[in-house]
Design brief:
By secondary structure, the chain is mostly helical. It contains seven helices and no strands.
Length: 242
Amino acid sequence: LNLFPLEGAVFDLHALELRSIYGWSALVDRAIDSWMPLMKEVGVGYMTGVQPIQPLVRLGGDVANLVLLPLEHYRRDGRVLRGLHQGSSTLLHTMATEALSLGSRVATGTQLILEGADSYLFARSTADGEDAGDTAHDHGELASSSKYANQPQSTSEGLQQAYASLSRELRSARHTIVAIPLEQYEQHGATSGALSVIRAVPVAILKPIIGLTEGVSRTLLGARNSLAPERKAAADLKYKST
């Protein structure tokens, strides 16, 4: 799992030119002295781009504005309440947006873990000679794109995508628990069909849960994108659409 993805980090490195340097030791010392301030800047850029820290950076800026904006309005026209209202509104908007983003990422992480378990069970069933059929097609199709591609634009669209995800996984579970064992029974007899049912039970349980976690993620993304449309625009540029 990509626990610390970088998003929105800014790295600004300048060219380094050294002259009249004799020996590797002197070169290394001069390079370290010259690059140290830049390395500190890079460290700050890295930390602000790490996903678990990035929301704190955004919230920190809005908390500061909660104090700075009233002071700015007081110096400008004496209307402290207007600045306080503007700062608190921005802070609440950011808190809601980041909470929805965090919830979506937690749901997506859970989905990835469950899909990993499902893929393991799927590989075991195919190794035993069962015909996976449409299930194999679903595994390949889902693995070909990012979980953050094709994001919903609104909460209603997120709910539609959630319904589609849950319906898809329920159909896959039904195929796993009914169609595949029936095929095994017709081709190899009752014993093979019964064993196929036993092997299909864990997968049939995982499939609806996977659809549910994906649905939660898509719904939260839709709500987040309705509050912050620029986040969807950035995601559309970053992630491959299918």
